[in-house]
Specification:
about 350 residues, alpha+beta, five-stranded mixed beta sheet, about 25% helix, globular, binds 2-oxoglutaric acid, dioxygenase, EC 1.14.11.30
Length: about 350
């Protein structure tokens, strides 16, 4: 996938050859029994120190890598529910609740485009102490219900959280942003999940440094080249950018190319930072029996696209073009629902 220089697969092979084995390839603190099982193959995402020139090369090539020693969110490593309850302030937090472990993202603004779509998770706004109380109550009762707090950090946070935030390693991350020509930092999403929660595969149109703070998360990534294997919902659907394939029970008649999918995976733990390149699909699961997980991500606008188009197009550029065609068709027809059947005659299967 890398056009020049080192690739993720080469770094992993090299680590194994050097006798690094499991210790360098995975973080300690969890075991295989905490992972859900899927039918597809995966390779390991390399774990490297931030000063390793190969890490820089992978980021430059827009390939994923886990950085083990950035200190990016060092002051937040003490965060837990009690500390946050005390210090995060009195703002509102978006908390999704579901009766399944899968929290499929949906865009509420696009709900008007689909009369049949019924979200399986519901968003509620609440204060942080109410979230903690609900979560502890569910745990105590051993209830089926699950919660996932997903809230952009904003200026309602308390003084101690501001101090922690200012102590993040902005030096390192600002240098990354400049070096790779990325645009502005758009947001920091705080994610607090229950053990076993799953965010199904989707891609974002932003660069992401995904900083793990508490607990362990398994992250399975797929490059944009595997777009044809992952069958995203149509652009106008509330689940735009999400895969339609249920990884636990894939319907291979509807989604035959899914059998060719190959992932890159890792488990991140406290202090690890995973680079999730723009347009890379990612499926993320809080490990089973691993307790609550806390993550803060750093989303950046990608580098500006070159004025002159250069061929051959990269996979993500093709994706961007297809998305634009879908959007324009929807606008031209005045009814996004009609775009699917029309395109379906061209690209069989995606819009069934
Ligand atoms: O951690 C998760 O569950 C999802 C996070 C995610 O999708 C992201 O940071 O882009």
């Amino acid at each position: 996938m890398a056009e020049a220089g080192v690739s993720a697969a080469e770094v992993v092979a090299e680590t194994k050859r050097a006798g690094g084995g499991e210790a360098e390839l995975r973080s300690p603190g969890w075991n295989e029994s905490q992972l859900r099982s899927y039918q597809f193959q995966t390779r390991q995402i390399p774990r490297l120190q931030h000063s390793d020139p190969r890490a820089e090369e992978l980021i430059d090539n827009e390939e994923p890598v886990v950085l083990t020693d950035t200190n990016l969110v060092h002051p937040a490593l003490k965060w837990d529910l009690d500390y946050l309850k005390e210090n995060i302030g009195s703002g509102d937090f978006s908390v999704y609740s579901a009766n399944s472990h899968k929290f499929l993202y949906y865009d509420e603004k696009k709900m008007v485009n689909s009369k049949t779509f019924k979200p399986k998770s519901v968003r509620q706004e609440m204060k942080f102490p109410e979230f903690v109380e609900k979560l502890r109550d569910i745990e105590q009762r051993g209830a089926e219900e699950r919660l996932y707090l997903q809230q952009t950090l904003n200026d309602t946070v308390g003084r101690k959280i501001v101090v922690d935030f200012l102590g993040f390693n902005w030096n390192w991350i600002n240098r990354q942003q400049a070096k790779h020509g990325w645009g502005q930092l758009t947001s920091n999403l705080l994610l607090i999940g229950m053990e076993g929660n799953v965010t199904p595969a989707h891609y974002d149109e932003q660069q992401n440094f995904f900083a793990q703070i508490k607990g362990y998360k398994r992250c399975i990534l797929f490059p944009p080249e595997q777009f044809e294997c992952l069958y995203p919902y149509p652009v106008h659907h509330p689940c735009d950018r999400q895969s339609q394939v249920d990884f636990e029970n894939p319907d291979l008649e509807r989604f035959p190319n899914f059998k060719n999918v190959v992932g890159y995976e890792t488990v991140v733990g406290p202090g690890d930072v995973l680079y999730i390149p723009m347009y890379w699909w990612h499926h993320i699961e809080s490990l089973l029996d691993g307790g609550v997980t806390i993550t803060v991500n750093f989303w950046y606008k990608g580098a500006p696209t070159p004025k002159r188009i250069e061929y051959p197009l990269k996979a993500h550029q093709k994706v961007a073009i297809m998305r634009n065609i879908e959007k324009m068709l929807g606008e031209a027809l005045g009814s996004p629902q009609e775009v699917g059947p029309l395109l379906n005659t061209m690209i069989k299967g995606r819009y069934d």
